[in-house]
Specification:
The structure holds 3 protein chains of 3 kinds. Chain A has 11 helices and 12 strands. By secondary structure, chain A is α/β, with parallel strands linked by helices. The two termini of chain A are about 20 Å apart. Chain C is about 80% helix and about 0% strand. The radius of gyration of chain C is 19 Å and the shape is globular. In chain C, α1 packs across α5 and α6 runs parallel beside α10. Classes of the chains: A alpha/beta, B mainly alpha, C mainly alpha.
Chain lengths: ~300, ~260, ~260
């Protein structure tokens, strides 16, 4: 398990919002758990805000906030207020300022007025925002957000992105993991993509997009992809990757090709048995870059 | 034919579910060690108070502990299926209810029987209580009837479990009531009258009495009427349970309490 | 951020966290009901057996002992599942990742459970008085209250140790169930230790509840409870220290083997 992150090496600057992307099981959560002192590395070292995660675990714990996605990590039977009060005690907040601080955070995450209700009645999005408030109680310099938007509806997710952006503006350093590429694209200053426990790419979102070999992506809509023809397209010269996106009655081929390759006619020629719909070139997204990085390595 | 199939196949599947739930880590402490300690607790209590014999407490508590596997078994089968959301799927099927639920009761019944015999045999060895060899076949029969009638009560208990969330609390309370009322540790004639009346309509009371008589050397003929009463009581509870299951199924379709966690 | 002196911060933390834990347990009314009623079933059985005895003091003996059964039950059954619950809920990791030492976060949890036992203790005495006419005559009330409070604290240290020991086992709750009866038996709640073989009585003597119930009986009878109470407190402290050391070790190994969370 710890081996999974053998080759992970990155540095986050203060005030930066750093994204850690990668498929399930790539080692994202393991990395975060090591940095939040929940796991001991068997080799190598990690320093958080100048403190070693093994030898100065308590100092690290004081300076960081840890928030993960999903329903867990809250006491459902308690009110939002009591949840925050308990963790305020665990983080040693001075009693005199606790009340004000909790009120401030409830305001920040948009839960003011709901604090007396039991958490079991909260929606997923509300729970997640309460989670963030909990992680911010002690005003940590560095915040770990491990897939915070998982399972949240689009409106909730947008609000969450707003909250994260505000945190960054206020000068916090943030490490974010997510499976949603547009979220990473919108929020992150820099991104590392990890796979099988090592970093396969690192850079600003735009730099990663430029790495998509072609700089361009050909989208081909098909109705019932005939057998063998996907392989035929993949075999064409000048093509790097072909990702198939299944929709209700159609399939969309996302074809990444070399920059100057003019492949439209070859691709269409290869799809002889398949009914083809819309065909269009578009600019690559972070998702294209991600898919190429992850499938290539 | 299909009812018989439903009875056995459904029973088999829930048997597997029961035993994946009852891993050795749960089975050994809860169903083998705990009854022995319950027996030891009351045997020692009887010795300290100088009331009754070791054999009296041994038989009473070993048989009464049937209530744990029987009440929890069926209730948890149903509660467990609610937890994994398969209960709704089963109830949405057109399968006939009676073989469906009775099939589910079969492994529980067998399990209760094993637990009682284990408690009796290990308890008698530990305490040096002499149980004549000829009494064992009769005890096995009595334990089987006791397990069946307690499973009947388990049906009613499980029906209520469909409705309330805290099934184990309910099962524990039922267990406690049986402990006090079934003459487990106090002879029925020493209970206040009103309690003895309740005792006479509860499962296990007659089986415990029959088992004590058999250990003391009685033959099956003399305890026959006790066993018949025990079986009758079990059947009545079982029918009540099936009726209640039916009723609560209709209810929960109306109030959506089925998949509420 | 300014930090408080530990001299003030630790007691405050323990009290606030204890109160919050009480709230968590108390919200399930049905559970709380069982916590009180369950020992009553056994107390009632014991009273029914002891009732035959002509000596009225025997019933007082049984009532005082039975009242401790609920304290033990609360600890045995809930302490073993307490950390499991935190683990399933994902809050165990958050407790660990906070700067408060792990052992300190566990004390209020077991303390809250032992406090529930107090509730059942009162209920048992009341039940004995109302239904079985057992007189509630306490010779030295001050000593009695001191004994009850210190007993609960000592017993909660046993719970602390138990919860730490079993945190890695998923079916720990079953272990809690199996500890209930032996505890009732071995701690001499309902039967005198002199009935046991020597080695069993030896085991009884290293369990704080054994001394707790003895102290409680002595204070009720007007004898001096302080020796028993002192032994009870010393044993409780020893369990607490062992548990604190154990908790750090277990935490370290859980951090190495990634067993804190279930994901």
């Amino acid at each position: 398990m710890v081996d999974a992150v053998r080759g992970v090496n990155f540095t986050i600057e203060r005030g930066e919002l750093f994204g850690l992307l990668g498929p399930n099981g790539a080692g994202k959560t393991t990395t975060i758990k090591m940095l939040t002192t929940l796991l001991l590395p068997t080799g190598g070292s990690a320093t958080v805000l100048g403190h070693d995660v093994v030898t100065s675990a308590r100092q690290v714990r004081r300076d960081i906030g840890y928030v993960f996605g999903g329903d867990r990590g809250l006491y459902d039977r308690l009110s939002a207020w009591d949840n925050l009060r308990y963790f305020a005690e665990l983080y040693g907040l001075p009693p005199a300022t606790q009340r004000a601080r909790i009120g401030e955070l409830l305001e920040l995450v948009g839960l003011a007025g709901r604090e007396k209700e039991r958490v079991e009645g909260f929606s997923r999005g509300m729970k997640q925002r309460l989670h963030i408030a909990r992680g911010l109680l002690h005003d940590p310099e560095l915040i770990f957000l491990d897939e915070p938007s998982i399972g949240i509806d689009p409106v909730g997710a947008r609000e969450l992105r707003g909250t994260i952006a505000r945190l960054k503006e206020s000068g916090k350093t943030i490490l974010l993991t997510t499976h949603y590429m547009f979220e990473a694209d919108e929020l992150c200053d820099r991104i590392a993509v990890i796979q099988n426990g090592s970093v396969v790419a690192e850079g600003k979102p735009d730099e990663l997009k430029k790495r998509v070999s072609a700089g361009r992506v050909l989208e081909v809509e098909t109705f019932g992809l005939a057998e063998g023809e996907l392989e035929a397209v993949r075999a064409l010269a000048g093509i790097h990757t072909v990702a198939v996106e299944e929709r209700e009655t159609t399939q969309v081929l996302n074809i990444q090709a070399e920059a100057d390759a003019e492949i439209t006619s070859e691709v269409l020629a290869a799809l002889t048995e398949t009914r083809v719909g819309r065909v269009a070139w578009r600019e690559p997204t972070l998702e294209d870059a991600y898919v190429e990085l992850v499938t290539a390595s | 034919m299909s009812s018989i199939r439903l009875f056995f196949v459904g029973g088999l599947i829930s048997f597997r579910a029961l035993f994946s739930w009852l891993s050795p880590w749960i089975y050994i402490p809860s169903l083998l060690i705990a009854p022995i300690f319950q027996i030891l607790l009351f045997v020692n209590l009887g010795r300290a108070a100088d009331v009754g014999s070791d054999s009296f407490y041994l038989v009473g508590n070993a048989i009464q502990y049937i209530a744990i596997p029987c009440l929890f078994g069926i209730a948890n089968t149903i509660a467990g299926e609610r937890f994994t959301s398969t209960l709704g799927i089963i109830l949405a099927s057109p399968a006939r209810r009676i073989p469906l639920f009775l099939g589910r009761a079969l492994p529980t019944l067998a399990n209760g029987w094993i637990v009682a015999l284990f408690g009796l045999s290990v308890g008698s060895l530990l305490l040096g209580v002499q149980v004549p060899g000829s009494a064992w076949p009769k005890i096995m029969l009595i334990a089987l009837v006791a397990a069946a009638s307690c499973t009947g009560l388990g049906m009613l208990n499980a029906a209520v479990a469909l409705r309330v969330r805290e099934t184990s609390v309910l099962s524990n309370i039922t267990f406690g009531i049986l402990l006090i009322f079934c003459g487990v540790n106090v002879p029925l004639e020493m209970l206040p009258d009103w309690m003895a009346h309740i005792s006479s309509v509860l499962p296990l009371t007659h089986a415990i009495e029959a088992a004590r008589a058999v250990v003391a050397g009685a033959d099956l003929g003399t305890v026959g009427s006790l066993l018949a009463k025990e079986a009758l009581i079990g059947t009545v509870f079982c029918v009540l349970g099936l009726v209640a299951l039916r009723f609560l199924e209709d209810q929960s379709r109306r109030t959506a309490s089925l998949d509420r966690m | 951020m300014t930090r408080r002196s530990p001299l003030l911060a630790v007691p405050r933390f323990l009290i606030v966290a204890w109160w919050i834990q009480i709230k968590i347990i108390a919200t399930s009314a049905f559970d709380g009901f069982l916590q009180v009623v369950w020992p009553l079933f056994f107390a009632t059985s014991a009273f029914l057996v002891y009732r035959v005895s002509p000596d009225p003091d025997v019933m007082v003996y049984a009532a005082l002992g039975a009242s401790m059964m609920g304290v033990w039950s609360a600890i045995a059954t809930t302490a073993s599942s307490a950390l499991q619950r935190e683990r399933f809920g994902g809050t165990l990791e958050l407790m660990v990742s906070s700067p408060t030492p792990f052992a300190l976060t566990l004390i209020p949890i077991t303390g809250a459970m032992a406090s529930l036992g107090l509730y059942s203790m009162g209920a048992t005495l009341l039940w004995g008085w109302l239904v079985f006419d057992i007189p509630l005559h306490i010779a030295s009330p001050v000593a009695f209250v001191a004994c009850v409070l210190l007993s609960i604290i000592s017993v909660s240290m046993v719970g602390f140790m138990l919860s730490v020991t079993v945190v890695r086992y998923r079916t720990a709750w079953a272990l809690g169930n199996v500890l209930e009866y032996p505890g009732w038996l071995l701690c001499g709640f309902l039967v005198p230790l002199s009935m046991f073989p020597d080695w069993v009585a030896g085991v009884s003597r290293v369990l704080p509840p054994t001394w707790a119930v003895q102290a409680i009986r002595e204070s009720a009878n007007g004898e001096s409870p302080w020796v028993s109470l002192g032994i009870c407190a010393a044993l409780g402290l020893a369990y607490g220290i062992v548990a604190a050391v154990l908790s750090e070790n277990i935490l370290r190994s859980a951090r190495r083997q990634a067993t804190l969370s279930l994901t």
